[in-house]
Design goal:
By secondary structure, the protein is mainly alpha-helical. It has one domain (about 5-205). The chain has helices spanning about 10-25, 25-35, 40-75, 75-95, 115-120, 125-135, 140-165, 165-205. The radius of gyration is 18 Å and the shape is globular.
Length: about 210
């Protein structure tokens, strides 16, 4: 049996890069520090772990049951790709315009690791839509399913490490470096959004 039957490297790379761009681990550092930056190191470490686990749980839930939800609502993949592409484009424009830098105030008695860090800042609509699309692309290929699962775990590991060691990252690249990375992520995300919309149009034409 071929290696692709057990692990689809192309699916892993495509899913990992897409989710990294959408979830923007470096950009998450600013939000993380703004919410728990004044807390003790042990509290920051626990918040980083909880936020990563919440996001992983939400994304995994939609990876498993997302297609059933689509079937129940009668939504086709071309429509999902089109909506997802437009949504990702809006997120990309926010990144390029720098609108994502301001974060809403959160009450002291709310566990910010769950909301808004875990969701919707990490496991937001863009990541959920992308995950459902990748599950659809992997249909019937066990190696692609394995690759997608590993990509989701790997991306969340990167997110956890970025938040866990956010103080060190800030000292290394400064806020200007974070801003630059956010702009690059916005550009890449815009390209992905255009590709999704293009595939959506092709799907409608082929189905029509």
């Amino acid at each position: 049996m071929a290696l692709a039957d057990f692990f689809d490297a192309n699916m892993f790379m495509e899913a990992a890069i897409t989710l990294v761009v959408i979830m923007d681990p470096p950009g998450t550092i600013l939000a993380f520090l703004s919410l728990v930056g004044r807390k003790p190191p042990t509290v920051r470490a626990r918040a980083a772990r909880q936020a990563g686990l919440v996001s992983l749980l939400v994304i995994s839930l939609f990876a498993i049951s997302g297609q059933a939800i689509l079937a129940y609502l009668g939504i086709g993949i071309p429509a999902l790709q089109g909506a997802g592409g437009l949504l990702l484009l809006l997120i990309a424009l926010d990144l390029l315009a720098g609108k994502g830098e301001s974060q809403p105030e959160v009450a002291d008695d709310v566990n910010v690791a769950l909301v808004p860090l875990g969701t919707p800042l990490l496991a937001g609509p863009g990541a959920i839509v992308a995950t459902i699309v990748f599950v659809r692309e992997a249909a019937g290929r066990p190696g692609a399913y394995v690759a997608l699962a590993l990509a989701i775990v790997a991306v969340h590991l990167v997110i956890y490490l970025c938040m866990r060691y956010s103080g060190l990252v800030i000292r290394l690249i400064r806020e200007s470096g974070i801003t630059l990375l956010a702009k690059i992520a916005g550009l890449l995300l815009a390209a992905i959004a255009v590709e999704l919309v293009t595939n959506s149009v092709r799907g409608f034409i082929a189905g029509g």
